[in-house]
Amino acid sequence: MSKEMLGALDALEQEKGVKKEIVIEALEAALVSAYKRNYGQAQNVEVEFDQKKGNIHVYAVKEVTDEVFDSRLEVSYQDALEINKAYEVGDTIRFEVTPKDFGRIAAQTAKQVIMQRVREAERSIIYNEYSQYENEIMQGVVERRDNKFIYVNLGKIEAVLSKQDQIPNEEYQAHDRIKVYVSKVENTTKGPQVFVSRTHPDLVKRLFEQEVPEIYDGTVEIVSIAREAGDRTKMAVRSTDPNVDPVGTCVGPKGQRVQLVVNELHGENMDIVKWEEDPSDYIANALNPAEVIAVQFNGDSEHTCTVIVPDYQLSLAIGKKGQNARLAAKLTGYKIDIKPESEVEFVDEDDSQDEGAVVEGFEEETTEAVEGFEDQATDSAVDSEEQPQE
């Protein structure tokens, strides 16, 4: 048993990276419990594992006292002196009490401890590996599904794609290859669990990082993303290089770059707009493809503005079921109230400096990669904190 034990410990350390000392410590603790359980002994015992020979020794630990009240825990001072005259009251003495048949129990216990440590080591390895991919994209294969979840094989682990993380109307079949965003990796009592998403806004960000080298190297930055998964996404970008057009860079020649992202998201419309430091210009860009006449800010309320558009552009500015305005509000962080030009009385230019800005000669700074706007309006007031409608 000794050679077998030592060989198992060496293999565990080499193959699984589990230190031999850690296993021995766990083994000794398990053997103490096994000894008390099998021999009905309640005394204070210690177990030592001889790492050279593989032998196991059980010791009863007793305290030296003037008067013995419990022989399982105490030894008299006189008896202690017969063992070694150096002992004093309060010292502890170890007496070997290893049973003759303890080897069988030790072997069974060692096997259980080693198997447990192997499972823990494997779980730890998987957790450490996949936790590095948290907030990143991975490609997986759809394995199976039930009423709540889709299970995606990521190699060494099966990830969970919940209902809320699935794109509406997107069909997932067994053996389909899909890209997913790793939203969370947890180390649970049942082992590591990986949660993935197809609806997370950062999925769009990571996809563009893969397709646009200028985003990956920092030349073009993604400032904000507003997404209603499966339908439409607005993304604001800026360039750190004045010679690089951020929108055109993301769209790519003949729209090739953005089309790769759209294809991965199964036709989700993608609006890429230029971020501007001036809030008026930024909000006007965010409402593209609608034409904006002016953006007026309400002085008594932060991050609230009124956007004036031509009457014939009102439906386009609001979008189908308010989607265009809703996404623009999320993208910019402003509560946006859209009004037609015919319902607005413009103040004098001198009085409007603190209240708003007229967007003159507004040129489109954005590219709509995928067509498909429907000009229906439901509400002209949109809160940037409103949740997406699915």
Automatic annotation (TrEMBL):
Pfam families: KH_NusA_1st, KH_NusA_2nd, NusA_N, S1
Cell location: Cytoplasm
Domain K Homology positions: 229-292, 301-378
CDD domains reported for this sequence: KH-II_NusA_rpt1 (cd02134), KH-II_NusA_rpt2 (cd22529), S1_NusA (cd04455)
Keywords, in A-Z order: Cytoplasm, RNA-binding, Transcription, Transcription antitermination, Transcription regulation, Transcription termination
Record has Protein biosynthesis as a keyword: no
Domain S1 motif: 133-199
Its job: Participates in both transcription termination and antitermination.
Subunit structure as annotated in this protein's UniProt entry: Monomer. Binds directly to the core enzyme of the DNA-dependent RNA polymerase and to nascent RNA.
Protein name per Swiss-Prot or TrEMBL: Transcription termination/antitermination protein NusA
Annotated source species: Latilactobacillus curvatus JCM 1096 = DSM 20019
